[in-house]
C-alpha cells in the first residue's frame, strides 16, 4: 500500500527541494505505508541472472536441496554472446494464487550489456509488473534509463519503481589518489524517471510488490556486521538532482560528503510455500545477516530457504569473513547463492563451513525454487 506525497508536503522536507519542484521533478513520487504488511506466499519462484560478472560456457544443470539451476540456452548465432560486467540485474518470475508476476531487480552497469543479455536470454519486458532498485550504486542502476528508453512503450502505463528510500537518490563519489579529491560515481535521477512516467515508491518501511514479493524496508543493524569501505555519499540536492536529506537526517548533514552507510538499502524477498523465505540481497552493504533477520521479523517467517545475491564480502578481512559466514550458517538456510560482490573468498569459506549448500551461478542461468 502506498500514498502519494502532496507537492507542498514534500517541499517542507528541505528548502533545497524548491528548485527541483519547480521543474516538476518529484511529481511522480509515492511513499510506502507504515502499516504492517500481510506477507504473500507464492508457489514457485524463478530468478534469471541477466547481468553478473562471469559467464561459464560449460555450466551444467544441477539441483541442490530442492533448488534447481540451469544454464542459458545456447543461441543459434555464434557471433553473439552473453556479456559480463561488474554489476547485477535479476529477472524474477513467480507463481501463486493462480497468478503470475514478473519483476526486475537492478539493471547492471550499462544498458548495452543489459539489453544484449535480455535479447539473448529471451525475457519479455511486456510481462513486467514492476521494477525494483536495491540501492544507489551505479552498477545497480546504470542500465535503467537505457532499458526504459527501449521498452517504456511495452511496459505498464502505471509503472512503478520501488526504491529503498530517499538515500537511494543521493550522489555517490569515490576517492582518488589525490587527497581530498573525488571521482563521480553517478546519481539515480528522478527527473528522468518522471519524464518516462515512472512513479517512484520509497520503501523505507516494508512493502508488498505486485501481490507476490515484499521488501524489508530499512534494515536494522542488529548483528556484528559493519559496512565495509565502498563509496562516499554527498547529502543534498543540486539543480534538482540528489536526495532530500531533511526528512531522515539532521539538517547539518546537508552538503556533507561522508562514508556511505547505505541507510535505505533494502532486500527483496519471497515466501515460497512449504519452503520458507528467499531473501535477495543485491549488495548487502548493511550486512547479509542483518538483511535476513529483517526479512524474518517483517514476515513472521523464520525458515530461510535461500539467501541469494551480492553480499559485499569480497573485501572482507579473513577473521571478519569467517565470523559472518558462521552467522549465516546459524540461520540454517537450505542454500546460499553468492553473486556479484560476494567474492571468491566468500564462496570458499561458505563451502568450508556449509558444504553442500553453496550454489554457484553464471550470467544467463535460471534458479528455480518451489514446485
From TrEMBL:
It comes from the Bacteria. GO terms for molecular function: 7,8-dihydropterin-6-yl-methyl-4-(beta-D-ribofuranosyl)aminobenzene 5'-phosphate synthase. InterPro entries: DHPS-like_MBL-fold (IPR041712), Metallo-B-lactamas (IPR001279), Metallo-beta-lactamase_dom (IPR052926), RibonucZ/Hydroxyglut_hydro (IPR036866), TAT_signal (IPR006311). PROSITE patterns: TAT (PS51318). SUPFAM superfamilies: Metallo-hydrolase/oxidoreductase (SSF56281). Pfam families: Lactamase_B. Keywords: Signal, Transferase. The keyword Lipid biosynthesis does not apply. Residues 1-25 form the signal peptide. Residues 99-153 form the Metallo-beta-lactamase domain. Its EC number is 2.5.1.105. The keyword Signal applies. This is 7, 8-dihydropterin-6-yl-methyl-4-(Beta-D-ribofuranosyl)aminobenzene 5'-phosphate synthase. It comes from Bradyrhizobium ottawaense. The lineage of its organism: Bacteria, Pseudomonadati, Pseudomonadota, Alphaproteobacteria, Hyphomicrobiales.
Amino acid at each position: 500500500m502506498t500514498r502519494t506525497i502532496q507537492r507542498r508536503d514534500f517541499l517542507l522536507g528541505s528548502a533545497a527541494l524548491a528548485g527541483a519542484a519547480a521543474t516538476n521533478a518529484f511529481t511522480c513520487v509515492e511513499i510506502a505505508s507504515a502499516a504492517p504488511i500481510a506477507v504473500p506466499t507464492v508457489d514457485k519462484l524463478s530468478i534469471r541472472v541477466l547481468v553478473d560478472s562471469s559467464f561459464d560456457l560449460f555450466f551444467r544443470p544441477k539441483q541442490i536441496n530442492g533448488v534447481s539451476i540451469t544454464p542459458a540456452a545456447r543461441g543459434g548465432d555464434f557471433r553473439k554472446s552473453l556479456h559480463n560486467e561488474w554489476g547485477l540485474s535479476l529477472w524474477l518470475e513467480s507463481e501463486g494464487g493462480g497468478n503470475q508476476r514478473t519483476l526486475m531487480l537492478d539493471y547492471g552497469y550499462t544498458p548495452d550489456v543489459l539489453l544484449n543479455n535480455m535479447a539473448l536470454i529471451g525475457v519479455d519486458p511486456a510481462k513486467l509488473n514492476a521494477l525494483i532498485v536495491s540501492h544507489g550504486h551505479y552498477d545497480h542502476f546504470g542500465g535503467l534509463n537505457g532499458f526504459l528508453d527501449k521498452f517504456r512503450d511495452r511496459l505498464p502505463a502505471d509503472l512503478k519503481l520501488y526504491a529503498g528510500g530517499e538515500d537511494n537518490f543521493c550522489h555517490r563519489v569515490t576517492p582518488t589518489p589525490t587527497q581530498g579529491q573525488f571521482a563521480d560515481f553517478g546519481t539515480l535521477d528522478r527527473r528522468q524517471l518522471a519524464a518516462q512516467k515512472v512513479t517512484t515508491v520509497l520503501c523505507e518501511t516494508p512493502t508488498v510488490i505486485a501481490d507476490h514479493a515484499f521488501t524489508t524496508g530499512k534494515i536494522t543493524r542488529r548483528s556484528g556486521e559493519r559496512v565495509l569501505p565502498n563509496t562516499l555519499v554527498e547529502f543534498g540536492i543540486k539543480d534538482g538532482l540528489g536526495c532530500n536529506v531533511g526528512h531522515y537526517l539532521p539538517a547539518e548533514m546537508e552538503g556533507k560528503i561522508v562514508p556511505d552507510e547505505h541507510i535505505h538499502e533494502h532486500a527483496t524477498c519471497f515466501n515460497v510455500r512449504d519452503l520458507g523465505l528467499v531473501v535477495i540481497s543485491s549488495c548487502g552493504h548493511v550486512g547479509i545477516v542483518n538483511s535476513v533477520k529483517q526479512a524474518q521479523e517483517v514476515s513472521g517467517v523464520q525458515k530461510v530457504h535461500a539467501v541469494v545475491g551480492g553480499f559485499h564480502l569480497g573485501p572482507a578481512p579473513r577473521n571478519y569473513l569467517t565470523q559472518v559466514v558462521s552467522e549465516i550458517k546459524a540461520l540454517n538456510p537450505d542454500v546460499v547463492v553468492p553473486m556479484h560482490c560476494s567474492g571468491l573468498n566468500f564462496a570458499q569459506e561458505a563451502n568450508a563451513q556449509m558444504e553442500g549448500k553453496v550454489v554457484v551461478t553464471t550470467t544467463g542461468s535460471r534458479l528455480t525454487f518451489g514446485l
